[in-house]
Amino acid sequence: MVDMKLKLDLHDIYNRGGDIDRALRAIINEAVTTKAPLVEIIPGKGSGALKKHVLRFLEQKEIKSQYHRVEKDSNNFGRIFVHFRWK
């Protein structure tokens, strides 16, 4: 089995709020469906507003129940990793 990392780059859709939530939900669902161990979300650096939006989205109870933990990349402010744990 190959470890698969899913990646979502939000640069293209950063100014369309609904699209961002839809894209985030879709990537989380894809990770669950494919049992991916890791999702990399790239909100980019910018003002930090998009990163906050992503983190708020991930804090929602029904989303949070699906993943194991969130890691903010210490080397790259514009990147968030969502880790999944599958049995």
Strand content: 15-25%
Spatial arrangement of strands, main beta sheet: 1-2-4-3
State the end-to-end distance.
14 Å
Helix content: 25-40%
Assembly state here?
single chain
Radius of gyration: 12 Å
Shape: globular
Mean pLDDT, all residues? 90
Structural domains: how many: 1
Largest sheet: 4 strands, mixed
Count of DSSP-assigned helices = 3
Class by helix and strand content? alpha+beta
Element-by-element helix/strand order = EHEHHEE
- Uncertain runs: none
Summarize the structure.
With 87 residues, this protein is α+β, with helices and mostly antiparallel strands. It has helices at residues 17-34, 49-59, 61-64, and strands at residues 5-9, 38-42, 69-72, 80-83.
Q: Keywords for this structure?
A:
4-stranded mixed sheet; 21% strand; 38% helix; 87 residues; 3 helices; 4 strands; alpha+beta
Q: What does the model show?
A:
The protein is an alpha+beta fold and 87 residues long. It has one domain (5-77). Helix content is 38%, strand content 21%. A 4-stranded mixed beta sheet has the order 1-2-4-3, covered by helices on one side. A hairpin with a 7-residue loop joins strand 3 and strand 4. The longest helix is centred in the N-terminal third of the chain and has 18 residues, at 17-34. The model has no long low-confidence stretch (mean pLDDT 90).
